[in-house]
Design goal:
By secondary structure, the protein is mostly helical. It is about 85% helix and about 0% strand. Helix 1 packs across helix 8 and helix 6 packs across helix 8.
C-alpha cells in the first residue's frame, strides 16, 4: 500500500521560521561583535587611566618611579629608528601633492597657489596622519608582538609574582615614548613634506622659491600647526595604548601573537582615522578650519 502523505503546514511557515532564525542569529552576531568592541575599548581606556595615574603619582611621590631610562630607550626605538622611513614617505607625499595640484591650478593660471594648498593640507592633515600610519606599522606592531611574547613566555606572571606592576614597568614607558615620538615625528614630517614640495615646485614647475615661501606664509596660520601637533599627540596615545592592550591580551601562543600584531595595525589605523574625523568636525564647528 503506498505511503499516505502526512498533513503538513503551509509552505510559507517553514521558510518564515528559517527567516526568523536567520534574523535572530544575525542580531546575535551583531550584538556579540558590538559587545566585544565595547569591551576592547573599555580595556584600552582602563589601561590609559591606569598609566595616567601612575605618571601623576611619579611626580608626587618619589618612591614611584616609571623608569626614565626605559622611556628614553623606547623613544629611540620607536621614534629615532622610524625617522628615515617617515621622512621618505612625507617627502614623496609633498612631491605628489605638488605635481597633482599643478594641472588644475594651471587652468586658472594660478600655479603659484600650490604652496597655499600644500601648506594647509600638510600641517592640518597629512603630516600627522601619514606619520601615524607609518608609525603604526613600524612601532605599534612591534610593541604588541614584544609584550605578547612576554605574555606567552609567562614573563608578565613573573613580574607580578615579584610584586612588580606590568603597567608601570612595561606599558607606561611605551605609551609615553609613543606620544613623544609621534609628536616630534609629525613636526619633522611637516617640514620635510613642505621642503620637498618647495624643491619640486622650483625644479619641476618653475615656481620661484621666494614666491613659494611668501604664499605659504600668507596662507598658513599658527593654528594650522598647533592643530596638527595636537592630533599627532592623540595619535601617539592611541598607538601606544592599543598596542600594549593587544599585547597584554595575547592567548594561544605564537598564533595569538600574530593575531595581536595584525589586530593592532588594523585597530590603530581605524582609530586614527576616526579620531582625525572627530578632530576635523570639532575644529570646523569652532571655525578653526
Amino acid at each position: 500500500m503506498p505511503d499516505t502523505p502526512t498533513p503538513t503546514r503551509s509552505r510559507g511557515v517553514p521558510w518564515a521560521g528559517r527567516a526568523r532564525i536567520g534574523i535572530l542569529r544575525g542580531v546575535e552576531f551583531v550584538g556579540q561583535r558590538t559587545l566585544a568592541v565595547l569591551d576592547h575599548i573599555g580595556t584600552v581606556l582602563y589601561l590609559v587611566v591606569r598609566a595616567h595615574h601612575i605618571v601623576l603619582r611619579s611626580f608626587r611621590d618619589r618612591r614611584v618611579r616609571i623608569g626614565y631610562g626605559a622611556i628614553v630607550s623606547q623613544t629611540i626605538r620607536i621614534g629615532v629608528r622610524s625617522l628615515f622611513i617617515v621622512s621618505l614617505v612625507s617627502a614623496c607625499v609633498g612631491l605628489i601633492l605638488t605635481l597633482q595640484m599643478a594641472p588644475p591650478l594651471d587652468t586658472y593660471n594660478q600655479r603659484d597657489l600650490v604652496a597655499n594648498i600644500v601648506g594647509v593640507a600638510v600641517l592640518r592633515e597629512l603630516g600627522p596622519l601619514i606619520s601615524a600610519i607609518v608609525l603604526t606599522g613600524f612601532a605599534g606592531a612591534a610593541i604588541a608582538a614584544e609584550i605578547g611574547t612576554m605574555v606567552v613566555g609567562e614573563e608578565i606572571e613573573a613580574l607580578e609574582a615579584h610584586g612588580l606592576n606590568p603597567i608601570r614597568f612595561l606599558v607606561v614607558p611605551r605609551v609615553v615614548a609613543a606620544i613623544v615620538s609621534m609628536t616630534a615625528i609629525a613636526v619633522i614630517a611637516d617640514f620635510v613634506s613642505i621642503f620637498a614640495s618647495l624643491a619640486g615646485g622650483a625644479l619641476a614647475l618653475g615656481i620661484p622659491a621666494g614666491r613659494y615661501i611668501d604664499n605659504l606664509l600668507d596662507q598658513v596660520k599658527p593654528v594650522d600647526f598647533y592643530t596638527g601637533v595636537g592630533k599627532a599627540t592623540v595619535f601617539g596615545l592611541l598607538i601606544g595604548a592599543i598596542a600594549c592592550t593587544n599585547g597584554l591580551k595575547v592567548t594561544g601562543g605564537a598564533q595569538g601573537v600574530g593575531r595581536a600584531t595584525t589586530g593592532t595595525v588594523v585597530q590603530c589605523v581605524v582609530s586614527i582615522i576616526i579620531a582625525d574625523m572627530a578632530f576635523t568636525a570639532i575644529f570646523y564647528a569652532l571655525k578653526w578650519v
